[in-house]
Design a protein that fits this description.
Two copies of one chain form a homodimer. The first copy, chain A, is 24% helix and 31% strand. With 355 residues, chain A is of the alpha+beta class. Chain A has two domains: 159 residues, D-amino Acid Aminotransferase, Chain A, domain 1 (2-Layer Sandwich); 166 residues, D-amino Acid Aminotransferase, subunit A, domain 2 (D-amino Acid Aminotransferase, Chain A, domain 2), CATH 3.20.10.10.
Chain lengths: 355, 355
């Protein structure tokens, strides 16, 4: 359809925040990308515009029935220019989420082109301090003003961007995790595999309770047997058991994480045995007793690698690797972030240059 | 706190739609109610204002993490004035949903007072044609512009209203229902009991597939055993089995429906045996074979009573009561709608007068 993306530049640019105090998702760049969908026109009117509020009818379906999906990826400032990490994966996954949420598929190339144009306009916002990056949030919301429970006839696809530091206040230091035995995040047959708002809303209660007890996040167990590991917080999770790295297989209720995929690829490249399979909490506890639960870590775009120093389950505490970041966890973190910031070779072709 | 609710009237009123062609949730009244929450001020600034778009930062948490709850209730025009059906139940349930979604509790009296003031301003919108009513949609959305996955620090509570006719095109005629064996709506430990957006988003795929096959809605089975009945579409469900009315017990994954509660109350009042317990699809099929599956119907605010004329499960069709509305289903429908529109006595004190 050769849709033309238009660009409207902000008349006044914001003052950029201190790169040493970015936090996560607190500041937004000067512009955003918008693409509209109407049932009779398809996706249309792609444009880069000044970052601004959006105006919606209070009956818009996103407010009532949660028909929405999102993605998260990052751009990095390297010595050889601005680079994106595996961006096409995100747009592929966005369309998988769309299918699960009854949202019409987006033209992945058009969405990607929108991102490139937006990044080009806001390129000065990609921070350069070590450990920082530009977090990119594409998302789609249902905008039809109608209270019947049906898929919306209109949508907005948007991309907003935020310069970020570390996701966890702890940085890459190990976090303490509460194994959740009451609340459930998702179940087979549900939307756990999709990157959609409801999955995150469902996790807030458990997360708040865990925080009150001094834990950073929860480890989710499956909703059927209440014993198989699913995710940690909003990340995928890995365990090193007697030299073998194990992660829950993709079962329909966990996210097909891009960092997860990158970690598996890296481990195979290194010749480290890695298994995608069911992992039960009982297996982990037995491994802890045997001294073979060597390392544990979460993986996600926001935190990259988040080492787990302690698990709490049914009142018992299980310290992992003396509460320190494991050797392999550190090596994976250093390698992925090294590839991302251009300081290490990129043997997998993960980086895509903006220019 | 004796918060004062202010009223700003619309300068121009909309033309009212034809009361014989209202549909469901297509038209909105001239005004809406807004109440704001900020972590440092609590709920404040309650006001009735002209119905209008709301302006939100694209990073508002409702778009990304689905932190939102809603309610649905109706006002009726009766010969003795405008009446609400059990409205305080809705505000009680809203706060239960709030607790599950980590949203701060609302002052139920203030929210209710907001509704009364709004209804008073828009009282001409309560339709009078038989079968019509004014559908009222209170809802809360998380408005903080921050991408960390945490409860929002700010919210909007709003009430919008829509004059409605029948929810289903079929009216009170029986609908055909597909028993869903692949998709799952909710699971124990999840948010199925809360009236929150994600539950509805999760159901769209199954609903669309059912529609393609000629069914109005799906009958949800539990996510653990995949055999116990949960809900039908977004309604609670009842079965008359050999003279006994059976409905799934409140188990944490189904909604505590106000119409469900009204039906149970009514049946007990009539001396009809009613049981809240687990009901399996196998039990229903066996009852069908035995000729004891006498009636089936969904209950909800939107449709009140929706008779089920046929179930489809694993390719087999099970016609109920010859595909006709059952005698008891019709009696319940006539009684509840008769109480609602003021034509029958209200022995339970369910109606609350606006004036």
């Amino acid at each position: 359809m050769a849709e033309q993306i238009t660009i409207e530049r902000a008349q006044q640019l914001k003052q950029k925040p201190d790169e040493n105090k970015l936090g996560f998702g607190q500041y937004y760049t000067d512009h955003m990308f918008i693409l509209e969908y109407h049932a009779d026109k398809g996706w249309h009117s792609g444009r880069v515009v000044p970052y601004q509020n959006i105006s919606l009818d209070p009956a818009a379906k996103v407010f009532h029935y949660g028909q929405t999906v999102f993605e998260g990826l990052k751009a990095y400032r390297t010595e050889s220019g601005i680079k994106l990490f595996r961006p096409t994966k995100n747009f592929e996954r966005l369309n998988k989420s769309n299918a699960r949420l009854s949202i019409p598929p987006i033209d992945e190339k058009l969405a990607y082109e929108g991102l490139i144009q937006l990044l080009n306009v806001d390129r000065d916002w990609v921070p350069s301090v070590e450990g920082t990056s530009l977090y990119i949030r594409p998302f789609i919301i249902a905008t039809e003003a109608a209270l019947g429970v049906n898929p919306s006839l209109s949508y907005l696809f948007m991309i907003i961007m935020s310069p970020v530091g570390a996701y966890y206040a702890e940085g890459v230091n190990p976090v303490k995790i509460h194994v959740e035995s009451h609340f459930v995040r998702a179940v087979a047959g549900g939307v756990g595999e999709a990157k959609t708002a409801g999955n995150y809303a469902a996790g807030l209660n458990a997360q708040e309770e865990a925080k009150e007890q001094g834990y950073s996040q929860v480890l989710w167990l499956d909703g059927v047997h209440r014993k198989f590991i699913e995710e940690v917080g909003s990340m995928n999770v890995f365990f090193k058991l007697n030299g073998v790295v194990v992660t829950p297989m993709l079962n329909g209720s966990i996210l097909d994480g891009i960092t997860r995929n990158s970690v598996i690829t890296l481990l195979k490249h290194w010749g480290v045995p890695v298994e995608e399979r069911r992992v039960s909490i009982d297996e982990l506890i037995e491994a802890h007793h045997n001294g073979t639960l060597e390392e544990a870590f979460g993986t996600g775009t926001a935190a990259v690698i988040s080492p787990i120093g302690e698990l709490s389950y049914h009142g018992e505490k299980y310290v992992i690797n003396g509460g320190e970041t494991g050797e392999l966890s550190a090596k994976i973190y250093d390698t992925i972030t090294g590839i991302q910031n251009g300081k290490l070779e990129d043997p997998f072709g993960w980086l895509v240059a903006l220019d």
